[in-house]
Amino acid sequence: MARIVEVTELLLREAQQSLLKTSMALDDVIPVFEDLDNAGYWSLECWGGTAFHSSIRFLNEDPWERLRTYRKLLPKTRLQMLLRGQNLVAHRNFDDSIVSRFVEKAALNGIDVFRIGDALNDVRNLKASVDAVKKAGKHAQGAICYSPSPVDTIVAFVDLAQQIKELGCDSICVQDVDGLLKPQAAYDLVKGIKQNCGSDTLVSVHTHSTTGVTMVSLMKAIEAGCDIVDTAISSLALGRGHNPTESLVAMLEGTGYESRLDVERLHRVKQHIAKVRPRYREFLNQPLGVEPEIFQHQIPAALMLNMEYQMKGQSTPHLLDEVAEEIQHVRRDAGYPALAIPASEILGTQAMLNVLQGKYSVITSEFADLMLGYYGTAPGEKQPEVVDKAANRQNKAAITCRPADLLEPSWERRRTEALALGSNGSDEDVLTYAMFPNAAARFFQTRTAASKDTPKPSQETHGVTGPALSRAASGEAMPAESRTYIVKVSGEEHNVTVTPAQ
Amino acid sequence: MARIVEVTELLLREAQQSLLKTSMALDDVIPVFEDLDNAGYWSLECWGGTAFHSSIRFLNEDPWERLRTYRKLLPKTRLQMLLRGQNLVAHRNFDDSIVSRFVEKAALNGIDVFRIGDALNDVRNLKASVDAVKKAGKHAQGAICYSPSPVDTIVAFVDLAQQIKELGCDSICVQDVDGLLKPQAAYDLVKGIKQNCGSDTLVSVHTHSTTGVTMVSLMKAIEAGCDIVDTAISSLALGRGHNPTESLVAMLEGTGYESRLDVERLHRVKQHIAKVRPRYREFLNQPLGVEPEIFQHQIPAALMLNMEYQMKGQSTPHLLDEVAEEIQHVRRDAGYPALAIPASEILGTQAMLNVLQGKYSVITSEFADLMLGYYGTAPGEKQPEVVDKAANRQNKAAITCRPADLLEPSWERRRTEALALGSNGSDEDVLTYAMFPNAAARFFQTRTAASKDTPKPSQETHGVTGPALSRAASGEAMPAESRTYIVKVSGEEHNVTVTPAQ
User: The pTM is what?
Assistant: First the structure.
């Protein structure tokens, strides 16, 4: 008897984000729902992450409404979402009153499986959401953000898995957002988790095909006991996206493992998506093929591309290698946070400033907060001198408590604000407003208009965000001694005025 | 101590054929020669196969001269070629006087490793070339053409490997031209060969990335003891091409296996090829991504595409599925020859005729010859009724001897003919003429002109050939009872007049 390997299909959300940098129109995916719902998937990942923001900002579409549509049209299969721990679907910490309500409403609207991760791998940032998921009677999957470093060893990750399990999670996900998970590491990590947390601990592996090796990593993870793997239907796979679902099915043939998937249904899904994909051609702004050179610096492909773009904008493309090198130093100084959003963007922007302006002569407020523990605790030791500089910059001390413990309950305030801005009075609207106040305020005014079913590309940071460093929009020449930049982190703009250190 | 896995780089020949359907200009590849020659490859595959024909037909370039250039500029690394057994670099049998001279001259001009395969896996078709390679003191690698069927089991392939070894081959290649080699089959096959032929028997695995699973197959083959794998530099890899070299290096990290390759040199090669590749954009006429659906029918991707094109030309695109199905029947009737050139084309054309004209009411002369043993012996039993029809069609009997035994030594005759057509008097020119008489005759007249260093695409079957079935060029309407088609097999045209059976 072959052992069953379960599959989470990423077509409905992350595959779109990774390859198209937008969400596909509902009309383009509805025709495959019957096949998806009957193909035998363990779950369909379809909500959360950057898609929430895209919905209100670019599609003029209520993300909660889309979720209800998924639930109605996909009645048989588990629906899964990506939740960034205390950040929910945004990039800053929320207080627990928001976290618990967000999870409760997501569960009520249709989510069965919550994949919960934190870029700093600080389990305290997962706890409130895991508790809320358990309270709602749903599946809590705790994620390890996989980003190797001198302190992020297999042993450290296995220990982290144990902590995640102790939170009460129903499964553990090894989440590799850049295709950095090599085959042997995949094997060792899954094996370690199974040995340490118990062989009945469900383990899921999420990886990207970016580097060309992770299909092999899935095989090795399965050999080590991995229960669930993430893939995307082949016509929306590969590149910086994911490994192809149908290839996974074929890969297992004769191995003693097998999926439950119905190949004919998969093939119909593939064909339909291949047919509609050209509508999103203008969004495809990434190289095809593989980027194994990422192993040399471990910088996420999207961040590297963004850096390149920014450095060209600064007329300093020749400094790109220096910035890539500097990211390693800044990461070390910050105690090796994972190179995942938002830490990757924060480190990237700081590395650029270090190269362009001198080492830590300018510090962004986000980087300062990261150094001072306001995002959580990083896995390694921080460089004390840089912590001191950050404390001076922000005029506040480093913290060691869970960051959200400093936040006042904000539900009632946000509820009042949302109503004043034209929300429809639902709790879901309050949550939308809490996530993205500016975009939500605009959305509340425009929601009655039809949703834009063929989104137009935007010059703005869109979907997968990155730091956007550019001259002040005014275009005025600034005095040589002092320059003002607009630094965009996760879509939020900050004016940064730079004066060279004496 | 990690075990070394050796690598054959396909960039210089097969990767170009698979992805660009042409040969790159020498000037575009020479800049990477120093890195290629010092990167630590076991061999550089660079000659033979379809490239020979392309050279004289499309590039106005002497393939022997290109080989000498490779040898001169790549002094350190083994140069490897693909030789189709008794067919050499064409698609029909040659007598042994031609075979032995071709090998001798290829060795003298620079080839170190001869990969020798036959689409029917008839080892008698390998013998003359293997003997010639050994006589020249070079490395003879016998290839198993991997194309699973009810009679082509792992046991049968292992037995074939033993026969190949007994010919005196220095190594055995598992050659999978369509990405059909699944991981477990790769493991079982390599393990079987090692157990049966001795663990010191060098085994090489060649596969394509077409179906998205074969990177895993390479890993499993290596675990089973495979010594050499074929890959292509990542900027000319994937799709219907090959797995990326740099990803292979990364894949092995920490596994107990490692390559000798220098990652920095590989990265420079990648970057240069990525830079020049856009010059060949117009040649890229295949879908990107993966085609795991090939597992359902096992029809080579290139053949399927060609079929589709032909069926549209016949205004019968709706019959494509029927033709794909019919190929399976025709293959069975022919004793399961591998779906590799030339058998794949012969079966494809016959299947189209069967669907369009009625089952075997029209038989091409190539198909008849295949049925009658004139290409060699197929692995399975042939359908006797179809053999009888073929015998009637050709008015000759089936044979069981080695086909080349029926051929008169032709060296002297071809030498005289080549001289009369303007050859330069060299043995190499005679061989070029022997391979492709018409193209060579034209080439002898035009060779003094500069080589076309940026080849132009052609509507003709080009590089990777397939059957081209089209209405007679005259365009005249034929009487309904009788039609004439030009059937092109491997670039050679045949008039086929079709009269429905009574």
Answer: 0.89
